[in-house]
């Protein structure tokens, strides 16, 4: 008789999916595991397969429709006799005898035979039983009372925390990891917490030996397997999102930092009197803002959904911060309106708290342009990954004494490389190069920088 | 206090010293707050003095008597009869049970340096209270936070008004000096049925009159059916769909049954237990700006805050689910919230226990509720008749029902009727709060021979049933 097939949860606690197309029509005969429909979630396109052998009686929905998870999408005639029992009184399972050896007295209300589970056996990417912190319809995370309390203490919405415990339970560890990483802004949310520039490792990354091709399948006992989660998982997702969305091109230019470093040395003492530790980054931020003013398309984003270019009027500059937990990008808001000392003080505070894992999500959100300074660690230059949905990111290599030619003579100057990765959908090479040259000009001449940027 | 205008300042004023209020006061004091607890009767509130505790005391005595008189099967033969000295029973209940507990509460308050004020409180503004002191005069308090824990009071219905002597509420029925030979209970909720059974076991001829079609309205009928069988055996008359009215006249209660037929039932005493309403009389909530809903309850958020953010309400006064343990849990939440802790009333479920014979207890979702919430519920049952320990106790009536979600295997609820299920339900409450699957219960070794094996067996048969359905 009629078997109602409900749309399974094809992702992690998703509530709906877009119907892309039907692969069967009403009246078709289908076999179990035969693909019947394609749906699109915000993460993937998923083929859903038939849970039964039988005939398609009715299809619900047109391509383009948004289907709710657990809503009936197909009615099959699976040829079984009688109506599909719900969990009614189908009595009589006889349980094991009681320890006392008495006559067993148990009965069990189990719907009779062959009621295939609504979650199609063949459905790919089937959610874990109650995972993703969203245990079925109740919609509340599965977590012990003490864990729920911990979440409140850490200011975490426990329903957002992916559970790793049995049956998808959210453990206290999950909550702590989530809080430390401030992971996973809701899908579609603008540049959020730990975003996407190329992570710059403070410590040499453990040089994992190149894994053999089959490593994933048969885990070598010597391999350590660490669940990809928390901040690392978010970084991974966001890097992928950026690289798969924006066609990256990186332009590189060299910059003479000699004058700026001398200027900074003086300013450093002035700053010290105010109790502020001054690096050269606030000057870079100022120079970047000045250059962005002249090249508004680099302080922009693409609204994919609306198919519009958004030119940002405010200058919120993110900077990549390497921490033990992973890459964070704290944001200096309205950097154009703040004096260098203020920016320096703010950066110092953000860095200190960032390393302790104490930044609020808001402090890592909303940047319009990002800078990643690899130079403090070393490295000539690198090709940073854009902090999506921004359209460009500046990477700074190390500053070092190098011989350069000035007026026909070889002199020793403090040189560094600037690398600008940009989204070629919006920015062409000419504009990017001109921006980079202008930036190098500003950084190379503190007097000019003072006039243009301060 | 000489003058009402001199106010004593306090961090937290707790109004009402029942299981909500005194627990809140204790917790607040533990957290370093200066606490004033105001109560115009005994510490411990209705629960300790006129409710849960005294009723359990009488129920225990009734059980004991009944068991002794019905253990001939087990070889206990009573020659002559077991005499009940009910005045003595009442003394024991009052002095050996209640007084000890109220004294315990008093010493807790003392240890916590909670100032206990005896009197009736009323708000004078959003930060002030005036207390009409029991000893005479008034005292004024200003508070940073207040917790309203004034509880509930029995409805005194116009169709069957209390007379304070022979027509009484539960408080009165718990204080009878002698066992009523003929006892009519108007209202078949848990209070009426519990006391009806207790007095039936103590020798009274009991009739329970219930206006709806089922005793313990709202309770899983599977559980109530077991209770109904026992009531017949105990000789308790149950009249469903029936209405008593007009009070006790010439030793008779007029009842109209479901078919419109009129009955006159002889009675010495009548218990009217048709419900309880929130008790806020005289509090002058309006002066503090605290709102109540149309039924008189004070709405609160999950931190137990009323619409006035520094005033909290807990227990019976804020919801129709009137349970002492819930009030206590809410009291802790309120105290911790005031102390700045991130506490919230976020429990999944509050277990309910009814001390009938056999006892009834449930927690979480019933099958129907689970289905409404979109689960795919599967129910298993296990009868106590197959649990060894139950037979050794001579208590084979009843069962454990477990409700689990087919898809996720999650335990969703448990319903029980049978011996000591009031003690067994705790395991299920913990399992639900921990987010257990039915399998977790099934894989936990349970002690043999105990009644808890009923839970284990129900869990095993749940798993077995799922396996079987999967194999077919």
Which key terms come to mind for this protein?
heterodimer; A: 454 residues; alpha+beta; OB fold (Dihydrolipoamide Acetyltransferase, E2P); Dihydrolipoamide Transferase; Chloramphenicol Acetyltransferase; seven-stranded mixed beta sheet; four-stranded antiparallel beta sheet; 20 strands; elongated; B: 472 residues; alpha/beta; FAD/NAD(P)-binding domain; Enolase-like, domain 1; 3 domains; five-stranded mixed beta barrel; five-stranded parallel beta sheet; 14 helices; 25% strand
Can you give a write-up of this model?
- The complex is a heterodimer of chains A (454) and B (472).
- In chain A, strands 10, 13, 16, 17, 18, 19 and 20 form a 7-stranded mixed sheet that branches. Chain A has a 4-stranded antiparallel sheet with strand order 1-8-6-3, with no helix packed on it. A 4-stranded antiparallel sheet of chain A has the order 5-4-2-7, with no helix packed on it.
- Chain A has 3 domains: 2-77, OB fold (Dihydrolipoamide Acetyltransferase, E2P), CATH 2.40.50; 129-181, E3-binding domain (Dihydrolipoamide Transferase, Irregular), CATH 4.10.320.10; 232-453, Chloramphenicol Acetyltransferase, CATH 3.30.559.
- Chain A is elongated and about 90 Å long.
- In chain A, strand 4 (35-40) and strand 5 form a beta hairpin.
- In chain A, helix 2 packs across helix 3.
- Chain A has helices at 145-153, 172-181, 230-245, 258-273, 281-294, 340-355, 429-444, 446-453, and strands at residues 2-6, 16-22, 29-30, 35-40, 45-49, 54-59, 66-68, 72-77, 107-109, 248-256, 300-303, 308-311, 317-319, 321-323, 326-328, 331-332, 369-373, 392-396, 400-406, 409-423.
- Chain A is α+β, with helices and mostly antiparallel strands and 454 residues long.
- Chain B has 472 residues and is of the alpha/beta class.
- Chain B folds into 3 domains: 7-154 and 277-338, 3-Layer(bba) Sandwich (FAD/NAD(P)-binding domain), CATH 3.50.50; 167-273, FAD/NAD(P)-binding domain; 352-471, FAD/NAD-linked reductase, C-terminal dimerisation domain (Enolase-like, domain 1).
- In chain B, 33% of the residues lie in helices and 25% in strands.
- Chain B contains 14 helices and 21 strands.
- Chain B has helices spanning 21-30, 45-50, 52-69, 86-111, 170-173, 190-201, 221-234, 285-288, 324-338, 367-372, 388-392, 421-433, 438-442, 453-471, and strands at 7-15, 35-39, 115-125, 128-133, 138-148, 152-154, 167-168, 182-186, 205-209, 237-239, 243-249, 252-256, 262-266, 269-272, 276-278, 311-313, 352-354, 359-364, 377-383, 399-405, 411-418.
- In chain B, strand 9 (205-209), helix 7 (221-234) and strand 10 form a beta-alpha-beta unit.
- Chain B starts with 6 loop residues before the first strand and ends with a helix.
- The relative contact order of chain B is 0.12.
- The mean pLDDT of chain B is 95.
- The interface between A and B is large, with 47 and 51 residues.
């Amino acid at each position: 008789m009629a078997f109602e097939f409900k749309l399974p949860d094809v992702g992690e606690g998703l509530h709906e999916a877009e119907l892309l197309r039907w692969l069967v029509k009403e009246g078709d005969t289908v076999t179990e595991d035969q693909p019947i429909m394609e749906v699109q979630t915000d993460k993937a396109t998923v083929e859903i397969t038939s849970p039964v052998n039988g005939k398609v009686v009715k299809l619900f929905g047109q391509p383009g429709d948004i289907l709710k998870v657990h809503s009936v999408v197909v009615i099959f005639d699976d040829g079984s006799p009688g109506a599909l029992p719900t969990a009614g009184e189908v009595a009589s399972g006889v349980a094991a005898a009681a320890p006392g050896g008495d006559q067993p007295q148990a009965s069990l209300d189990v719907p009779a035979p062959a009621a295939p589970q609504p979650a199609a056996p063949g459905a790919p990417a089937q959610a874990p039983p109650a995972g993703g912190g969203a245990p079925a319809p109740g919609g509340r995370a599965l977590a012990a009372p003490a864990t729920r309390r911990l979440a409140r203490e850490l200011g975490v919405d426990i329903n957002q925390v992916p559970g790793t415990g049995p049956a998808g339970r959210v453990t206290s560890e999950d909550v702590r990891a989530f809080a430390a990483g401030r992971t996973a802004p809701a899908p579609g949310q603008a540049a959020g917490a730990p975003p996407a520039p190329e992570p710059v490792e403070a410590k040499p990354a453990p040089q994992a030996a190149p894994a053999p091709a089959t490593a994933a399948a048969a885990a070598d006992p010597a391999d350590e397997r660490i669940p990809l989660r928390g901040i690392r998982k978010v970084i991974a997702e966001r890097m992928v999102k950026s690289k798969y969305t924006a066609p990256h091109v990186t332009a590189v230019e060299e910059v003479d930092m000699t004058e700026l470093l001398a200027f900074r040395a003086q300013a450093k003492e002035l700053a010290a009197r105010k109790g502020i530790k001054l690096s050269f980054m606030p000057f870079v931020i100022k120079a970047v803002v000045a250059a962005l003013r002249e090249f508004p398309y680099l302080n922009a984003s693409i609204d994919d959904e609306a198919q519009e270019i958004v030119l940002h009027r405010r200058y919120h500059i993110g900077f990549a911060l390497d921490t033990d937990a992973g890459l964070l990008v704290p944001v200096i808001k309205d950097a154009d309106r703040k004096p260098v000392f203020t920016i320096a003080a703010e950066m110092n505070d953000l860095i200190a708290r960032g390393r302790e894992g104490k930044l609020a999500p808001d402090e890592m959100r909303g940047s319009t342009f990002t800078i990643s300074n690899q130079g403090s660690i070393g490295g000539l230059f690198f090709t940073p990954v854009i902090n999506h949905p921004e359209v460009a990111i500046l990477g700074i290599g190390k500053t070092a004494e190098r011989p350069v030619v000035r007026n026909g003579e070889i002199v020793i100057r403090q040189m560094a490389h600037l690398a600008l990765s940009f989204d070629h959908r919006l920015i062409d090479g000419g504009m990017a190069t001109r921006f980079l040259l202008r930036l190098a000009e500003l950084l190379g001449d503190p007097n000019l920088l003072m006039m243009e940027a301060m | 206090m000489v003058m009402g205008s001199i106010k004593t300042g306090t961090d937290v004023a707790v109004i009402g010293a029942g299981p909500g209020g005194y627990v809140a006061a204790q917790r607040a004091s533990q957290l370093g707050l200066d606490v004033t607890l105001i109560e115009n009767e005994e510490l411990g509130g209705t629960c300790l003095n006129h409710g849960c505790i005294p009723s359990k005391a009488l129920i225990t005595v009734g059980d004991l008597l009944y068991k002794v008189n019905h253990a001939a099967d087990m070889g206990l033969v009573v020659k002559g009869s077991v005499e009940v000295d009910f005045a003595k029973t009442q003394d024991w209940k009052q002095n050996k049970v209640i007084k000890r507990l109220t004294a315990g509460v008093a010493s807790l308050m003392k240890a916590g340096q909670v100032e206990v004020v005896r009197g009736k409180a009323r708000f004078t503004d959003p930060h002030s209270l005036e207390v009409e002191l029991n000893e005479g005069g008034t005292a004024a308090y200003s508070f940073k936070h207040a917790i309203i824990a004034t509880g509930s009071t029995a409805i005194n219905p116009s169709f069957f008004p209390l007379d304070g002597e022979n027509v009484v509420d539960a408080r009165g029925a718990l204080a009878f000096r002698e066992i009523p030979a003929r006892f009519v209970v108007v209202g078949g909720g848990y209070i009426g049925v519990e006391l009806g059974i207790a007095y039936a076991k103590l020798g009274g001829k009991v009739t329970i009159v219930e206006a709806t079609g089922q005793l313990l309205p709202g309770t899983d009928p599977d559980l109530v059916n077991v209770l109904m069988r026992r009531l017949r055996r105990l000789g308790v008359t149950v009249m469903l769909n029936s209405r008593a009215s007009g009070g006790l006249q010439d030793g008779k209660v007029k009842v109209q049954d479901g078919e419109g037929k009129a009955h006159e039932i002889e009675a010495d005493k009548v218990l009217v237990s048709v419900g309880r309403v929130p008790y806020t009389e005289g509090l002058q909530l309006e002066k503090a700006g605290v709102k109540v809903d149309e039924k008189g309850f004070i709405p609160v958020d999950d931190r137990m805050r009323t619409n006035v953010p520094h005033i909290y309400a807990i227990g019976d006064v804020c919801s129709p689910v009137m349970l002492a343990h819930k009030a206590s849990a809410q009291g802790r939440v309120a105290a911790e919230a005031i102390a700045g802790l991130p506490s919230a009333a976020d429990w999944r479920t509050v277990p309910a226990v009814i001390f009938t014979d056999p006892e009834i207890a449930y927690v979480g979702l019933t099958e129907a509720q689970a289905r409404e919430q979109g689960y795919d519920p599967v129910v298993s049952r296990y009868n106590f008749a197959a649990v060894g320990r139950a037979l050794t106790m001579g208590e084979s009536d009843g069962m454990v029902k477990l409700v689990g979600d087919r898809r996720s295997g999650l335990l969703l609820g448990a319903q029980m009727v049978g011996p000591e299920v009031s003690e067994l339900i705790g395991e299920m409450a913990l399992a639900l709060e921990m987010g257990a699957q039915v399998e977790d219960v099934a894989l936990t070794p349970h002690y043999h021979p105990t009644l808890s094996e009923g839970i284990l067996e129900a869990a095993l048969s749940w798993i077995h049933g799922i396996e079987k359905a999967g194999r077919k």
